[in-house]
Amino acid sequence: MTAARIENRIRWSGLLIGLGLAIQMLMLLWTHPLSFMIFLLVGCPLVGIGMLIYLYSLASHAAGEIK
User: Fold this and answer.
1) Residue 17 CA to chain centroid, in angstroms?
2) How far apart are CA 31 and CA 50, in angstroms?
3) What pLDDT score does 53 carry?
4) pTM, to two decimals
5) Please, are residues 50 and 17 in contact by the beta-carbon 8 Å criterion?
6) What is the per-residue pLDDT across 21-32, written as a single tens digit (0 to 9) for each?
7) Does 18 score more than 70 pLDDT?
8) Are 38 and 12 in contact (CB under 8 A)?
9) What are the sequence ranges of the domains in the chain?
């Protein structure tokens, strides 16, 4: 795997995590039952997907170096 590819994946993961955290922070300011659903159904998956992409990029890069 090239360095540019891992950098691109890490950039995307950081963007998803940042977007998810921003949504979660905004929903903490809004006092409405719908804000909790947006927090759970939009913010949490974005953070989770960003973390998974980050971990996958590190694991696939390390596996490529072992070969």
Assistant:
1) 3
2) 26
3) 97
4) 0.85
5) yes
6) 999 999 999 999
7) yes
8) no
9) 3-61
